[in-house]
Each structure stands twice: as C-alpha cells, then as structure tokens.
Amino acid sequence: LSGAILFRLDLFPKRKAPANLSNINLSKALLMQANLNNANLTGANLAEANLGEANLDSALLNQAVLSGAYLMGANFTNADLRGADLTGVILGSTVFGNADLTDAKGLELCRHFVASVIDHATLRKSGRLPLNFLRGCGLPDTLIEYIPSLLDDPLQFYSCFISYSSKDRDFGNRLYADLQNKGVRCWFAPEDLKIGDKIRDRIDESIRLRDKLLLILTESSIASDWVEHEVESALEEEKLTGRTILFPLRLDDAVMESSKAWSALIRRTRQIADFTGWKDHDSYQKSLDRLLCDLKTEEDKKSRSDAASSALFERAVLSPRDTFREEWGQVTSSIVKIAKRNGLINEEDIEASQVINKLFETRIISEAIKEKFYSLKKWHFNVVFFGSSSSVEPQSAITFVNMAKDLQSTVELACTNNSDSGED
Predict the structure, then answer these.
(1) Burial of 362 (0-12, 13-18, 19+ CB in 10 A)
(2) Using CA atoms, how far apart are residues 208 and 245, in angstroms rounded to an integer?
(3) From CA 103, how far away is CA 105, in angstroms rounded?
(4) Inter-axis angle of helices 225-241 and 367-386, nearest 10
(5) What are the respective helix, strand and coil percentages of the chain, to the nearest 5?
(6) Strand, helix or coil for residue 186
(7) 277, 287 in Cβ contact below 8 A?
(8) What are residue 162's phi and psi, to 5 degrees?
C-alpha cells in the first residue's frame, strides 16, 4: 500500500477486534484523519506517510518506521512507540499522552513546527528523552531541569557554567553541545544570556545556581577580564558555601606558565583537565569521557542532599518565591530557639539578626557564619520584596533552602559546642 490514498480511513469501525497491520508497507501513504485506534502496526513501514490529525490512540507502533512522516495533530494517546524510528518526523500539536517512547530512535532529529502535548505519564514511561525533543515539544527549560527529580530518577551529573574567552568560542560551543547531549545541564553567555540582562549580575547568579564552573584556560582566557571576574565569583561562592565549584580545563600550556595570581592559584591547588588535543577526535573524546566521569554524582549524593525530598523540588517548581519566604521564616525561628535552648540568650522578644550579632560578639560563631547569615538575609529580602513570581527560578529557591539549612546546622553546632565546653 505504499503511496496509497487512505484519507479519513476508518478501519473496521463495526468490529471490536483491532486491525492487524503488522509489518505492512504504508510508506508515503496519505492517512490524514485516519482512524487507526487500537491498530497493530508493529514493525510497519510508515516512512514519509501523511498522518496529519490521525487517531492512533492505543495503537501498537513498536519498531515501526515513521521517519520523515507528517504527524501534526496526530493523537498518540496510550500508543506504544517503543523502538520506533521517528527520525525527521514533522510534529506540531501532536499528542503524546501516556505514550511509551522508550528506545525510540531519532527523537533529537524531529522537526517541530509548533509545540506538542507530552504528559507526566509519557515522561515516566519513556525514561530519559533528548533535550532537543523536550524543548521542541514546548517544555520550558525550568521544567526539563527537574524532570529526573520529579520522576524519582536521580540526576546523573552536576550542572555546569562554562566560562571561556570569545577567541575560544569553537571549543566552548562544541563542549556545550556535547555535554547537553550527554544530559549535563549547562549555561554559558552566548546561548543563555537574555537581552537586557546586566551581564555581571546574570553571570554571578548563574555561577551561584550551578554546581561547577568549567573554566576553559587558554592564553586568551587568562588575559580576559571577563573570565577573571567569573573566577573571582566562583572562589567567593566556594568560601560562602564550602563547596568546590571551580573546575579548570586547559587547551594549551598558558596556565602552566602564567604569573597572574588567580591562574597561579588554580595551577597550584586544582587538578586541571587536559584538552590540549581537542582538535583530534579520539583525544577529545577521551578527555570528554574523563570529564563526564568527574561530573558524575556519587550515588545521587548531589540530588538527594540538595533536595531533602522530592517535596522540595515540587514546592520550588510550583512556588519558588514562597519557598524563599517560608524557609527563611523557619530558619530564623530555629536560630532563636537554638540560642535559647543552649542558654545563650534570655530575651523573650528577640530577632535572629540580634542573636547572630550576640553570638559573634561572644565569639561563639565566626565572622564567616555571620556574613553568610546576612548574605542570605539580603538574598531573601530581594526575592520576596522586589522579585516578581515569574522571575524567581526554582533552582534558585532550592539553592537558598540548602544554604539556609546549612547555616542553621552550623549555628546549632557552634552553640552546642560552646555549651559543652562551658559544662566542662
């Protein structure tokens, strides 16, 4: 039936048994608005077929070939598309409801003319789907970033901010594309900086919200004020959070010979990934594989420790601004209670900032803890009182929650240790 015109075909409308069309050749067939509900199309050849607005509800399409097919408006609710070839298909207003796309081929090469419908059940059944496919279906990056956690599928990699000189753009673009294709969430200025953003503020925010700063070191980047500022931001964040953020990569030997203070510090204190042979395919692939191995999370440590439970992800996605407000209220209240419980303050009506000041003055907490408290207080104030709901990212709320909880634990440990030493 290759090339057949089957417009509005309704297969056996009065029969209860589904039509068995397994391994049939319908390549280039005109099947617009056809009713293929429950049809068995296992292994069928539908390459370049026109299935616009066709009803494929509950159809069996596993191992079917749909490459180049026109699927705008098609309904794949409850469809089995396991192992199907969707290379180059045309999508738009296509419905993937409770569909199974496990091991489907060519999803990253689908052509999206308008957004499609893809639901939670499809995401859960299908496992990891290509980033390009999800974006093409209309899912925002904010949601895509949290799909693994919302589906109880731990994040495999740390997220990254890529820092490089404009003269190293070719390598930066290549690394960005390869990391994204491997499931590593990345940010870098040319791809993600929005028109009107204040550059330094946006970079500072992006570094703060990502786990690793991938610093591409070359003769050009070492001479760049832009890159130097990003390094300073990352080092400051390391001091504030106690996490290792800076992750250097070198494309030449400049960093090994530089006399600049920040580059010398990196050379002395960090293991620098070697990409000097990046123009050779095999050498680049080996270096990329080593990088991916280093970026692997340890038994979901990052995703689990950063989000005490999936509830935190859901709360942050649904209402990130309220997450800031609620978490800060809980942490400040806890700090006051901790100080009272350890007999360090007697005042009934006292604010957390007053407690922090008193603990610092009596040398119970360090200046770094005090600075972290006021940094978080300022961040909370700016978000709650000046940020709009749409401008607050869920990842920002999650980072704030984890930093606030860490602050609370640090204060509690300092107060407890002081009480124990006082008893001795």
Answers:
(1) exposed
(2) 9
(3) 6
(4) 110
(5) 50, 10, 40
(6) strand
(7) yes
(8) -100, 125
Q: What is the pLDDT of residue 106?
A: 93
Name the residue among 257, 200, 198 with its Cα closest to residue 229: 200
- pTM greater than 0.85 (yes/no): no
Instruction: Give the β-pairing of 186-187 and 212-217.
Output: unpaired
DSSP H helices in 279-391: 281-295, 301-306, 310-318, 320-341, 352-361, 367-386
Spatial separation of the C-alpha atoms in residues 119 and 404, rounded to whole Å: 34
Distance CA 288, CA 290 (A): 5
Residue 293 tokens, joined: 């191995």
Rounded-to-integer distance, Cα 256 and Cα 276, Å:
12
Q: Which residues pair with 45 in a beta bridge?
A: 25, 65
Sign of CA dihedral 412, 414, 417, 423: negative
Sheet with strand 273-274: strands edge to edge: 186-187, 160-163, 212-217, 246-250, 273-274
Residue 213 Cα to chain centre, angstroms? 15
What CA–CA distance (Å, rounded) separates 10 from 15? 11
Q: Is there a contact between 114 and 92 (Cβ–Cβ < 8 Å)?
A: yes
Query: In the numeric block, which tokens belong to residue 340?
Result: 């009272």
Residue 111, beta-bridge partner list: 90
Residue 407, both tokens? 């602050």
Residue length of the chain: 424
Quick one: CA dihedral 409, 415, 418, 423, positive or negative? negative
pLDDT at 13 over 60: no
Query: CA dist 151 to 78, 121, 125, 128, Å?
Result: 19, 10, 10, 10
What DSSP state is assigned to residue 160? E
Nearest-10 crossing angle of helices 281-295, 169-181: 60
- Exposure on the CB side of residue 186, measured as CA atoms within 13 A: 24
User: Looking at residue 272, what DSSP letter applies?
Assistant: P
- Give the residue from 343, 341, 378, 371 showing the smallest Cα distance to 356: 371
- Rounded distance between C-alpha atoms, residue 15 and residue 272, angstroms: 68
Query: CA angle at residue 284 from 279 to 286, to 5 degrees?
Result: 155
Q: Give per-residue pLDDT as tens, 231-283.
A: 777 777 777 767 778 888 999 998 888 888 888 788 877 778 899 999 999 99
Residue 2 — very low, low, confident or very high, per pLDDT cuts 50/70/90? Answer: low
Cβ proximity of 369 and 414 under 8 Å: yes
What the block records as the tokens of 359 is 């603990």
**Contact 289/175 with Cβ under 8 angstroms?**
no
